[in-house]
From TrEMBL:
Keywords: Pyridoxal phosphate. One of its GO terms (molecular function) is cysteine desulfurase activity. Its cofactor is pyridoxal 5'-phosphate. It holds the Pfam family Aminotran_5. It catalyses: (sulfur carrier)-H + L-cysteine = (sulfur carrier)-SH + L-alanine. This is Cysteine desulfurase, catalytic subunit CsdA. The keyword Signal does not apply. Belongs to the class-V pyridoxal-phosphate-dependent aminotransferase family. Csd subfamily. Residues 23-382 form the Aminotransferase class V domain. The keyword Manganese does not apply. It comes from the Bacteria.
Amino acid sequence: ALGAWQRQLRAQFPILRGADAPVYLDSAATAQKPQAVLDAVHTYLVTANANAGRGIYTWANRTTELVERTRERVKSFLDDPDPARSTVHFTSGTSEGLRTIARDWLTEHLRDGDEIIVPFADHQANAQPWLEAQRLLTARGVRITVHDMPYEAESKDYDQAALAGLVTDQTRFVAATHVHHIYGNDMNVHRIRDVVGPDVPICLDAAQSVGHLPVSTTDLDVDFVAFSGHKAMALPGTGAVWARGARGPAFTPGGWSGSPNTAGILSMEAAFDWLEAAGLENIDRWSVALGVRLTDGLARLDSYEVLGCPLSLTADSDVQRRQGIVTFRHRDIGSSDLGFILAEHGLMVRADGHCQARGGETDSSVRVSLHLYNTPDEIDRLLDVLATLDRRNGARA
Ligand code: PMP
């Protein structure tokens, strides 16, 4: 049943049309755009293009209306418990979102002796801003302690017990990642609230979850969410920060800093409408199934090692928590070489480093990241090429 659903949706991506279309396997970097998003942008640019927030004439008013409508759409897409009091600030992506939270909220609210807990082994976008905030505060004579968010070695999830051991009366902020951009695991962030108690603000990097699965700020009970619109099928250079209204000090980012990316902003409304109509649960199920197909295929070869907890080896309930991101390494062939070989076969993957704040084992690997437009055939094409490079089939490095 999902097959027919998927074919109908894939057909809506112009860039993927044609029998000789390459295989796009880098959706964790940015997602492809359905026709509905392109149409919304086109319609806007040919009927109402103007600057936002300053007009007295029709096009400017229409632009402002679309921007404000998108702000409300971000709230509903994130299942906001209190949309009347929350804030949405538009950014160019998750990195700028997290930097904005660090600069405009954290540095304003921390006091001498305060402590924060942040994830240094995740994407660098969720590490550097907090260190930058610490530097700014230190320069003002405010000393804070920055703790590394602890991980379980096996599952790569956050270690709840170790986290509990870090929380003190001075803990003022916890930053976490919803879905890891290399291992593809849901980091169990819904458990963080129980560990840190009701009063510590939790900030979520949702770059790899928004647009892939339902993200509910109500269920997750978080205070800040930063995400990338462009990874959720909106235009390049889009994203937002959502900040809850009901608890904690208000978040007041710098307002319009220059002219906003109006077409990009409203493309998020179109993308969210499209994704919800397609069905986020099914999108999630589809990508995870493709990830399992790839992981199972790799397990039948000798030369490949999958990083993190392999999808198909986790318990059934855990398979549901894992996303369509599979990162692996060839035991003899370097990852950039492998990336080039795959590119020659029309297979577009991410190779080598992955912007991890603290590299290590992931530094040289190949990442395949999937979305609803990918197909089982594409996974098999990839596995066919990988098999020709396998020791079992006589390949030599
Ligand atoms: N956080 C995570 C987990 C990511 O995967 C990414 C993108 N690779 C980012 C942050 C940065 O997103 P952007 O490039 O949109 O700023």
